[in-house]
Specification:
The complex is a heterodimer.
Chain A (H helix, E strand, L loop, with lengths): L7 E2 L6 H11 L21 H14 L4 E2 L16 E2 L7 H8 L6 E2 L4 H9 L8 E2 L6 E2 L4 H12 L6 H18 L4 E2 L8 H8 L24 E5 L4 E3 L5 E3 L5 H6 L3 H16 L3 E2 L8 E3 L6 E2 H12 L4 E3 L3 E3 L8 E2 L3 H5 L7 H8 L8 H20 L7 E2 L1
Antiparallel strand pairs in A: 1-4, 2-3, 5-6, 7-8, 8-12, 9-10, 11-12, 13-17, 14-15, 15-16
Helix pairs in contact in A: 1-2, 5-6, 6-9, 10-13
Chain B lengths: L2 E3 L7 H9 L7 E4 L5 E11 L2 E10 L2 E12 L5 E3 L19 E4 L6 E9 L5 E9 L5 E10 L2 E9 L5 E9 L5 E9 L9 E10 L4 E4 L2 E11 L2 H10 L8 E4 L10 E7 L2 H14 L6 E7 L1 E4 L1
Antiparallel strand pairs in B: 1-11, 2-3, 3-4, 4-5, 6-7, 7-8, 8-9, 9-10, 10-11, 12-13, 13-14, 14-15, 14-20, 16-18, 16-19, 17-18
The chains are: A alpha+beta, B mainly beta.
Chain lengths: ~400, ~300
Amino acid sequence: MADLTGTVGERAANKNHDVALVQAMLGIVKSPKGHRYLGGFYDGLYGGKTKTAIAAFQADYQTITIKAAGVSQHGGRAADSDCVVHPGQFGPRAMYSALSNLDDSGVMKPGAATILKMNELLPADFKDIMIAPGTRVVYWPDLETQVAATAKAIQDDGTLHAQFRANVARLVRRMFEKHKLLLTIAPSGGRRTFQKQYEIATTPDADGNFATGAGPGESNHNWGQAVDIGFNQFEWLQLGGNSMKDDWWLNNLFKLHPGRDMDMWKIRNAIAFDELNMFPSKKPGDYIHIQRYGDENVSMVKSLAAVLEKKGKLSWQWNHGYECDLGFGGAWHKVGTSIQIWDKTGPMDKHWIAAGKGVLVASIKDADVKEMRDALRGDFEAAEAARDEWEPVAM
Amino acid sequence: MPRASSCAFGLVGALAAAIAAQTVPQPLAVIPVDAAGRRYEVSSGLCAHGSCRIVVRLMQGGRELDAQAIETRVPSRAFRPTAFKRANGAGDPLASTVDAQAYSSGQEENSVTLIVRPVKLTRELAGALIDLRFGFEHVKRHHEIFAASGGKLRKIWSAEEGEGPTYSTTALASLADGRQRLVYFSFFNYPDESGPDKLRIEAMAYDDRARKFAPDKAPLKGLFAGPYASIAEARTARMEQNRCRIPFWVLPASEFASANNGFVVVTVSASAGNISRVAGELKSCAAGMSFSSYKAERDSLIMW
């Protein structure tokens, strides 16, 4: 049963999530005459319409005490002017009042008659609705069985950094414990192979940089140090009883009620960052992304170059671009972006190879160029195989 | 989801004072406003705490009439010219170039690319269309149009990308009455086979009396292959022509093909010339695939 965490009404605490819950319920339950008490969307802000709707509900369903106003049920003066009676009834109302925890007029208390009656009147499909403290989105809870399986799959995912995946699994479990919500990793949001990163970076076309600027080896997803974990299938309530299912990024919530999506990210972040000491991306707005380390001053391209230098057969460095000595130990050559190196389309001048080998350029064949490009790609593959040795390098 | 909005007057006095107090760098772009000699100057300035704001100034002669800062922050005032890239979000989705210089600043997550173009709002008045691309791990774009209104500068339109694998771009097309139409394309590249990609196209032209953009029917064109029975099949077909370097999307077939079911691999444009060029390219780089034409005249196409 959905309950309040504080009072709602005139001069009450009116926490946003409590008000939103009440507003949402007033948009679902019907009066004895069959009309709903609120229209429009619930916003978590207590105002005139909410006040009127609560008062109407309380009057219709007699969930409030009234002051005896000096009149007893027998029409004589009451001995105690504070004696509580039930409106519209002149039976044994003092007893009824004590048992049913009636609210004062215009105010709803946690666990008291008005919220209890609202819950009672909710149609069966809405009996489970709830709201998380600090948010303004009423939702249906997820299934616990899915949570255990999801957390275990993450815990067992050996492609993710060991400590990190344990924390991500904890996040999934804690999110359900606290809010009955299931977090899942978005497609391509876990550890990505270099090939998968290449495919993402070059879709919808091979020029790249549409949805990501990170090529193979340049994303912390490639090193098992990050996940994109969000709210897929999150089912939330629109006023009037319509439900809306969302995607990992809460795009529907963002579209219909900008700002409410942030409420949901904040409750996830409170666990991920404050409890479990994981980190957001430094890029503002990249809400779905969680990573193992703080990246305030980290260069992904320099970090990749460092692994290439450490594990590759050739020598590598980053100098406003990937530079490689092509294995000759001499001059550095700019050999293209990581996308180009991966798909073997980067710059490769026959003069570079000729100079390195100390031969005439005329003797360098296309096969030599292909062989060199294969060698560059081979170093990328060696780096990927040694992904546990990746370390963040400063800008 | 993409978010687009018209905006009201927004100059903050304190901002103007702060802008004036700092040395103004050479503008990255200068755009004539009208026959009265007014102009927009776009520059990177107003730096504090290691980040700078891009500032749009309305100028007349040597006098600044008004100024507004763009919300997106950049790491430094130092911008360098950079090559055209469709991913910048400036131009038709199939453009091979755009008639404006792109500038970039910063590295990786701090990187920002900026393109400024004039847009003819009326026969007499031009606006400044600013397209920004920023980020690294997740790249996003932001688009804004500023216009002179009296002696003030107004932001009259803006759009930003939502969460997830998104892409958006702005195309301009000349109209017979001297105005230019704005076509805003927004895409969502759905990351697995449980859903198709998403598409949103909105065509609009400036309404001088209402002082805002209003929907305006535009000729939309496309090329599609399919329909395919499943999203997976359509994605496989898309990968087969990846080397063509033409952006394709997997969308429900219903809008494009006569079939009610299935999915197509489609590329869209507001330019007949671009579609024609791409059709020619596909004949050689995707010779094994058969493409059909899509044509429509509408102010929006939303498959989101």
